[in-house]
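Memo to structure team: turn this sequence into structure tokens by end of day. - J.P.
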Amino acid sequence: MPGPSFEPGALRAIIERIAGRRIAVLGDVMLDRYIWGRVERISPEAPVPVVEIERESATLGGAGNVAANLRALGAEPVLLGVTGADAEAEALRRAFAERGVDASHLVADPGRPSTVKTRIIAHSQQVVRADRESRAEIAGDALARLIRAIERELDGCDGLVVSDYGKGVVTPRTLEVALGRARARGIAVSVDPKESHIDVYRGVSILTPNQHEAGWVQGRRIVDEPSLLEVGWGLQKRLDAQAVLVTRGSQGMSLFERGGRYTYLPTVAREVFDVTGAGDTVVGTVAAALAAGADFPAACHLANHAAGIVIREVGTAACTPADLFASLEEARR
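Reply from structure team:
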């Protein structure tokens, strides 16, 4: 099925208007650690590969990766989340500073660890992942400080992203405050949802679940066009969202808008090395484009191109305006 056509000049203008847009990002901040190596033997202790470590690296994950993607596009993300009071929190703050992300509103909670995902990669393939985290909802002083930051910062923002990984930051209380402020300001709310929280997102501007998440919350696996349409329209109506974007990997994206408009966006990815963080890129690009005046199809079209760019690299990556311009031009040839 061919995708819709978009006027190149209009898309370019949207990308250029993203510069300087202030976007709040509420959600679960993570540190993604990577241990890179090679496998040449199996352990004599257990039937597992022995990875000979060659190098290590770290980057931003979760809401932090959303913020990094927004910054790469030229927007000004305002990060609203919680870390521990540990060495990993300091590593996170250094990573944000290196990327020009405002992390001054992050709340340090000594009662919980910073979320860290450690991936061991051998020959460009993930061997295993180890997580250090707390999934308990934030409470007490940490919650009170985060609420104050939300109330203070949202008044000066052009959009809101909710990046929900189920690590305790996105709660009924934080959402009540954030969504209320966003509605009062008339700014778009873009949500990368956690399935278990789905019904608290009623009335948001757009949700960007992948097809597995969307199918799970609707109780039907997406396996063909009829099941896709049933799930997509069912979720849009269930939440009365202005739009639902179901991302489908190699099968592209499907956009369901309030009022009945359906848009299919074929994938633009030519090479896929790693889909880690692609959902962060999608929701961040959609939010930035909406803040810059795009309608839903144009915003999702740009997000489709941005996702196609970042999955060409192993590990979380970000997309710049120059990358988007080049991808759009390549698609026209």
